[in-house]
Amino acid sequence: MQRIELICFGKLRESFWRDAVAEYTKRLSAYCKLTVTELAEEPLPMKPSQKEIEKALEAEAEAALKYINRGKSYVFALCVEGKQMPSEAFAQRLEQIATMGEGDVVFLIGSSYGLSPRLKALADARISFSQMTFPHQMMRVILTEQLYRAYTIIEGKTYHK
Asked: What is the pTM of this model?
């Protein structure tokens, strides 16, 4: 069974986000072992300077790197400049990773200011779900839904129409 880890900055504060992720996590349990690692966002002032943002992103990168096993994980960085793909192509990529023995899959969801350049550079792939910007809490729901959709595509289920 494929192992998927979401490394996210910040917690799901509202119950409706937690409920949505819990529902897709439950559905995904038939297809993969999903774990979520929530890391603290670095605190920033209301109007941070670019230097303060860069420092915070670098500190977040240090925290995330402790959870990434580079030799055994295929890493996706979710970022606006990443490649967009249809759900079918996403499913195909997950299946290729599983069948080629490329290891566990890690998804990085950044904080309010995204991911550090260092995390983006270490990723095996950068993906974007839209040119629009979403709150990272919502992105976690979208990602878990797309993971579920991908596995139903792989299994030929009717969820994906």
From this structure: 0.93
34 Cβ contact list (under 8 Å, min separation 6): 4, 5, 6, 25, 28, 144, 147
Contact 44, 53 (CB under 8 A): yes
- Which among 128, 11, 115 has a CA at the least distance from the CA of 63? 115
| pLDDT 10s digits, 70-127 | 778 899 999 989 999 999 999 999 999 988 877 799 999 999 899 999 999 999 999 9
Q: Where are the domains of the chain?
A: 2-43+63-155
Q: Give the architecture-level CATH label for domain 2-43+63-155.
A: 3-Layer(aba) Sandwich (3.40)
Rounded CA separation 8/91 (Å): 21
